[in-house]
Design a protein that fits this description.
551 residues, alpha/beta, Rossmann fold, GMP Synthetase, Chain A, domain 3, seven-stranded mixed sheet, five-stranded mixed sheet, globular
Length: 551
């Protein structure tokens, strides 16, 4: 059984089961249906080839027996730090079948974040590539293993493994099932309300939090998404967002398998390649942040490729300019652009729908998905009238079941069953939400959350830094980038190269590094000494506006 304590209650289980929001089906149930019905259908296409549902079923079964042979049992944790490769799906299906928890870690995470995630999840197995985008994952794992006594195995996808590692190819070549007792894998089926996933989110404060989901809480939102956008097994789904985080995982792993459709995994984002793949693989559905959509519209080969198969692009992960949506209509006339809002804790909560009027499609983040509820309240928790800005809260069957080993933090974020999202929003009379800002101190760079306090805390470890503040600066492509305002200690100085070297030495993921450094003598503060980050953001926004006017 899962070792993690959750805030799931019997009342919730009864209510959401009775309403059919929770079907009590595992991902492997949907997968088995597809593998039996269409064994020769292509299940996954990645940068290295393709695999059918029948082949995927055989490999996932062998992998499940292999995990059992390694000693993994229900409730144990397997950490996956893999790019968008088919091995991720094989491992997750195998783990799901025997009740092993999949802990998702993005390929961009480095020593500091990776060590924290492995400790928090008590991972027994870590699966990594040997190399990806120039980074040596084996060396990183070797540096950390001495600090992780619970980590029993490291499995490497790629080159032959070292003596204290296990090679994926050798693991999969071993007929583990022949050495197993005759007990069928189906007898190991976990409960749909057991924890099946831990995924890490960049919070406003401190280190990444481990968000726990059950099979029911991540099956439910994908069923709703498919119904809202009329998705079927005939769709070909593309994802370039890392499947090591919730957006990519739900849309590139869970959704295609629940539908029995084909998924095209892109491990390195390249809009020109996507244009070619839309024509080649007849991709019908894609999703990502506004940055992905912008890059698609700027793709050099857009006019030369047949992109007519693409019928839906679901956009989220940050503000979406109205002008971008209008441009998409012109350049991708066959594709409907649907905006939505959600979080790692709750998947896609609001979404625009097929048939919505332009007023809603262009100016809102959609309305609540079936089964979910949203409301906007003031600082005292009182409901606000339509159109009034306030704190956005939500509740329903998509909600996570707690932060791993942080029960107090879980309770702090709930008002009864209402989850305080940390976002500011308005809600119109028809129930359509418009995200207007954030209470949390987070920068969203191309759909990737940057945990500001986490990075600031690390900056204070630099002996040259006396005070620091990281704020968002506007960026036309990524939406926001991070700018660090730093006061140096007497006799010290700092430049961008030195700052980057320091963060690299601390094992901070590159995506979290500030991309601009401003050395200042003082920082604006409130009467009680708090840094006035709004003033710093306003300064950067004014500079951006002035530069735009001058050009």
């Amino acid at each position: 059984m899962a070792r993690f304590r959750t805030h799931l209650t019997p009342q919730q289980i009864q209510r959401y089961t009775a309403s059919s929001a929770w079907p009590n089906r595992l991902l492997t149930d949907f997968f088995d249906d597809a593998a039996v019905a269409t064994p020769d259908k292509t299940a996954v296409i990645d940068s290295r080839g393709a695999i059918t549902y029948g082949e995927l079923a055989a490999q996932a079964a062998r992998c499940a027996h292999g995990l059992l042979a390694l000693g993994l049992r229900a409730g144990d944790v397997m950490a996956l730090q893999l790019p968008n490769w088919k091995e991720f799906l094989i491992l997750h299906l195998a783990a799901t079948r025997i009740g092993v928890v999949s802990s998702l870690i993005t390929p961009g995470s480095r020593d500091r974040e990776l060590g924290h995630m492995l400790k928090l999840s008590d991972a027994r197995l870590l699966v990594i590539p040997d190399q990806f985008r120039g980074h040596d994952y084996r060396a990183m794992a070797a540096r950390l293993r001495g600090e992780l006594p619970g980590l029993q195995q490291v499995m490497v996808v790629g080159q032959p493994a070292a003596e204290n590692e296990m090679a994926w190819d050798a693991f999969m070549a071993t007929p583990w099932e022949r050495g197993q007792a005759p007990r069928a894998l189906t007898e190991l089926r976990p409960d749909a309300n057991d924890v099946t996933e831990i995924v890490f989110t960049s919070g406003a404060t401190g280190e990444p939090k481990g968000v726990m989901h059950t099979s029911n809480t991540i099956v439910a939102p994908q069923l709703a998404l498919a119904a809202s956008l009329h998705l079927t097994r005939d769709d070909v789904i593309h994802i370039a967002s890392t499947i090591g985080h919730q957006t990519g995982f739900l849309n590139g792993v869970r959704l295609p398998i629940q539908l029995g459709s084909t998924v095209v995994l892109q491990d390195v984002w390249n809009p020109e390649q996507l244009m070619e793949w839309i024509a080649q693989h007849r991709i019908t559905v894609s999703s990502g942040s506004a940055t992905f959509l912008l890059d698609m519209l700027r793709a050099k080969n857009l006019a030369q490729c047949d992109v007519s198969p693409l019928r839906i692009f679901r956009c989220g992960g940050g503000p979406i300019p109205r002008a971008l949506l209008l441009e998409a209509r012109e350049k991708l006339p066959h594709a409907a652009i649907h905006c939505g809002w959600g979080q790692t804790e709750n998947a896609v909560v609001t979404l625009t729908r097929i048939g919505d009027p332009d007023e809603k499609l262009l100016n809102t983040d959609g309305r609540a998905q079936p089964g979910m509820e949203v409301r906007v309240v003031d600082d005292q928790g009182q409901l606000l009238a339509p159109g009034k800005e306030g704190r956005l809260q939500c509740r329903g069957p998509f909600m996570f079941v707690g932060y791993a080993k942080q029960e107090a933090l879980t309770r702090e974020n709930f008002d009864g069953e209402w989850f305080d999202t940390g976002d500011l929003a308005t809600l119109d009379a028809e129930g359509y939400v418009r995200i207007t800002g954030r209470l949390k101190d987070i920068i969203i760079r191309g759909g990737e959350n940057i945990p500001v306090k986490y990075v600031e805390d690390i900056l204070y470890e630099d002996a040259r830094v006396q005070d620091a503040a990281i704020v968002a600066m506007p960026d036309p492509r990524l939406g926001e980038r991070a700018c660090a305002f730093v006061i140096c200690r007497d006799g010290c100085t700092l430049d961008m190269k030195a700052l980057q070297a320091f963060l690299a030495g601390r094992g901070v993921a590159k995506v979290y590094w500030p991309e601009r450094l401003e050395l200042v003598d003082a920082l604006p503060r409130t009467a009680n000494g708090k840094i006035r980050k709004a003033d710093l953001r306003a300064r950067l926004a004014q500079e951006t506006l002035a530069a735009t006017v001058n050009t």
